[in-house]
């Protein structure tokens, strides 16, 4: 391995789509926070 910075030499790295990983992570976090918000609104409505 003469050139450690050459990405063609790193055969064990799996190719990833960073944009889709970020988009899926954002969507999952948004969905989770939406569920938490809805539960908080229902709890607040039931308390008052």
What keywords describe this structure?
48 residues, mainly alpha, 1 helix, 0% strand
Question: TL;DR?
Answer:
The chain is mostly helical and 48 residues long. The chain contains one helix and no strands.
Strand content: under 5%
Q: Whole-number radius of gyration?
A: 21 Å
Q: Class by helix and strand content?
A: mainly alpha
Taking the alpha carbons of the first and last residues, their distance comes to 68 Å
Number of helices: 1
* Counted beta strands: 0
Shape field: rod-shaped
Biggest beta sheet summary? none
Mean of residue pLDDT values: 87
Proportion of residues in helical segments = 55-70%
Description:
The protein has 48 residues and is mainly alpha-helical. The chain has a domain of 30 residues. The chain has one helix and no strands. This is YqzM family protein. InterPro entries: YqzM (IPR025416).
């Amino acid at each position: 391995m003469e050139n450690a910075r050459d990405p063609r030499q790193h055969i064990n790295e799996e190719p990833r789509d960073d944009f889709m990983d970020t988009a899926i992570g954002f969507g999952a976090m948004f969905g989770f926070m939406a569920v938490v918000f809805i539960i908080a609104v229902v709890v607040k409505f039931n308390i008052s």
